[in-house]
Automatic annotation (TrEMBL):
Residues 6-237 form the UCH catalytic domain. It catalyses: Thiol-dependent hydrolysis of ester, thioester, amide, peptide and isopeptide bonds formed by the C-terminal Gly of ubiquitin (a 76-residue protein attached to proteins as an intracellular targeting signal). The active site is at 93 (nucleophile), 176 (proton donor). This is Ubiquitin carboxyl-terminal hydrolase. It is an enzyme of class 3 (hydrolase). It comes from Aspergillus coremiiformis. Gene3D superfamilies: Peptidase C12, ubiquitin carboxyl-terminal hydrolase (3.40.532.10). Belongs to the peptidase C12 family.
Length: 311
């Protein structure tokens, strides 16, 4: 886990994201992974509050001028009710993208199904309402509530401090999360590394699937041919709500199984099995020593490893 005050990296996973916002007090919302850029798939999950896009960050994707992004236009006079925060810390871009959707879909001006964001996030949003993007980002980075919820899903490791990035880490692939959501009839791209929200033009709830797919396709086309390291997550109303409204038992059972699997997977994410594995290994070694077969066992393992490497 991360040390006090740090933000760990978390996995892009529908179960992780859903549990994270529930821990923050958000009600009636879940995440669904999208395996294809298909407007009909997004529409089938309606109502959809927005999407979270994970991609490999390329340095040449930064805007060539401070006034023009590569797609869309900077909204330098964004509406007051638009929540947009600059990214001021590493590792938190996933949670920041999530909040960029959640905190913009809590009122009837954006959606006919406003999100109940809970007491903690309501207090945070109200407190930062008049802040500029940079100060809002600082407030987010210093929120103990949000950081604690985020770090609850850190990858458990006794060897790696997720809050420290080495020179080698900086040279490797870097991935980034951004949010797309419609606010006041406009599709916005909310990226904390950009100076302003990016407007992609008029967009209502019915037109959101086609509009956002078009924007994403243009973005992906800027990558080298064959690049597939992308992940897309839809932010939707809890699917159990609609299923209860129409009495769809099959969906309710499917969602119950899914939630049970998410709980199990998240429990494993929080666990560190190194000690357990070490004790098992010591027990096996002790047993082989008693049988006088330790050297034979080690040589057999080495031979099997060599055969696998050759294959």
């Amino acid at each position: 886990m991360a040390e006090a005050g740090g933000w760990s990296t978390i996995e892009s996973d529908e179960g992780v994201f859903t549990s994270l916002i529930e821990n923050l007090g958000v009600k009636g919302v879940q995440f669904e992974e999208l395996i294809s850029l298909d407007a009909d798939t997004i529409r089938s999950l309606s109502p959809v509050y927005g999407v979270i896009f994970l991609f490999k960050y390329l340095q040449d994707q930064t805007p060539t001028t401070p006034t023009a992004p590569k797609d869309g236009t900077y909204d330098t006079n964004a509406p007051e009710n638009l929540f947009f925060a600059a990214q001021t810390i590493q590792n938190a871009c996933g949670t920041q993208a999530i909040l960029s959707v959640i905190l913009n879909q809590d009122n009837a001006a954006s959606t006919p199904y406003p999100i109940d964001i809970g007491r903690e996030l309501r207090s945070f949003k109200d407190f930062t309402a008049g802040f500029p993007a940079e100060l809002r980002g600082e407030a987010l980075s210093n929120s103990e509530t949000v950081r604690t919820a985020h770090n609850a899903f850190a990858r458990a490791s006794p060897f790696v401090d997720e809050t420290v990035r080495s020179a080698r880490d900086e040279e490797g692939d870097v991935y980034h999360f951004i949010a797309y959501t419609a606010v006041n009839g406009t599709l916005y791209e909310l990226d904390g590394l950009q100076p302003y929200p990016i407007s992609h033009g008029g967009c209502d709830a019915d037109g959101f699937p086609e509009k956002v797919i078009g924007v994403l396709q243009r973005r992906i086309e800027r990558y080298p041919e064959g690049e597939t390291r992308f992940n897309l997550m839809a932010v939707v109303r809890d699917l159990r709500v609609g299923a209860r409204e129409i009495g769809d038992v099959e969906v309710l059972e499917r969602e119950a199984r899914k939630r049970k699997a998410w709980d199990w997977e998240n429990t494993l994410r929080r666990s560190n099995f190194v000690g357990f594995i070490g004790e098992v290994l010591k027990g096996v070694v002790g047993m082989k020593e008693k049988e006088g077969k330790l050297d034979e066992w080690v040589q057999s393992a080495k031979g099997e490893t060599e055969r696998r490497l050759k294959r």
